[in-house]
Amino acid sequence: MTKKILIINSDSPHNKGDQAILLGNINLIRYLWQDAKITAISDNPTRDEKWFGIEFIDQKVYTLNPISILKLTIQARKFDYVFWGGGELLKDYTNKIAPIYWFIRILLLNTFGVEVYGLFQGIGPSKGRFSKFLIARSVDMTKIFFVRDHESRTKLISYGADPKKIVPGYDPAILNTPKSSTKELFNEIGIKKEFIENSIIVSPRRWFHYTQSTWTPAIIQKIIGRSRETKSLDTYKNNLAIILKQIKDKHNVNVIFFPMFTSKSEGDTEFSIEICDMIDCNDVIVVDSELVSPESMLNLFSLARATMGSRLHSSIVSISAGTPSVCLYYVDKGRIFFDQIDARDQCFPIEAILTDEGLIAIGNATSKILGKDRVSKPHENSLKRIRKELLAIFESKFENDKD
Q1: Residue 338 has pLDDT above 80, yes or no
Q2: Burial per residue of 223-250, b for 16 or more beta-carbon CB atoms within 10 angstroms, e otherwise
Q3: Residue 223: predicted pLDDT
């Protein structure tokens, strides 16, 4: 019997990393139920149905409209499984509203008798006691809560969540692999194949510019003027431009900026353009990534010589596509992923770029991976291992209900 599955996804309409996660979750689900009828949520359903090959409910992922929330809650009762998947949803380091929002959403589903499965989420840093309480209660309301690493499980248990609910695993985006055909890719982005094959792809995130763990989301801070230029942000931009200039000259590579979060609230495209202007070279391009499908993104990353990003999923997409990556992580999820693939020497806390020593170390690590053809064999073997483990973990919890 065909399974009807609803994914309550994260911000996949606008976040390329969340698109990679959604694609990975679809691959994960189809591993068990090949003919499953999968539905997710998007405010751009026509585009996303074409990109992902599943059905979409026309609704904003993060909606405050009570009618929309209630309507989806009622619809959820018609599905065999409801998976709550994607990214790092339960945390308060961006703002303290997110744990409240998701607690209410899951409480409503719970109240209407809908069993929810958390689908390999990461648990980000949280400071507030109330946030931690709500996060733990949200997890306790699920049937099973899969997380993407052991540290996320440890955090949840320390917050008071039921350990029996929490199953550690990996990020589903690792399941994605590029297609062999690249014709559509070049039509989408308008860059010649030769240019891409001698390039480093860079996916930076603006950082050091807003107050964390407040009640005010970053977009509101920007509107009211609390999001600001700081000395650390200036140093970050200047040093990133310095590294890229050095790398470009030393290895004679092109630089392609690929913004991972295209919404104006995050400003990855704007930030990429700022750094691009500081490099001031003809062979530097900023891709309009809003127009690039998740499969084309994988194809693009597979052709580059190396990548660098402060958005973790730019590195996950890259390594899954067979291209080595350096990551400047702003929370521990970056370090954790590179530990999982035995590549700790290729990731750095983002604060490292603010120092001369860090600048040298990051430059050396990037030069090192540019000297390799593709992902080194140990990392390739690690990726194969964790892919196999992820599928086995997921399958083990649905042993009696698979195809």
Answers
A1: yes
A2: eeeebeeeeebeebbebbbebbbebbee
A3: 46
Residue 339 belongs to a domain with what CATH number?
3.40.50.2000
pTM, two decimals, is 0.93
Number of domains in the chain: 2
Q: CA–CA distance from 322 to each of 114, 233, 306 (Å)?
A: 39, 31, 9
Regarding whether 389 and 359 lie in a shared domain, the answer is no
Query: Do 74 and 213 share a structural domain?
Result: no
- Please name the residues in contact with 339: beta carbons below 8 A apart, sequence gap of 6 or more: none
Please check the confidence at residue 80 and state whether its pLDDT lies above 90.
Answer: yes
Residue-wise DSSP of 304-363: SSEEEESSHHHHHHHHHTT--EEEEESSTHHHHHHHHTT-GGGEEEGGGGGSHHHHHHHH
d(CA 23, CA 83): 14
Which run of H or of E encompasses 42? strand 37-42
Find the mean pLDDT for residues 66-89. 94
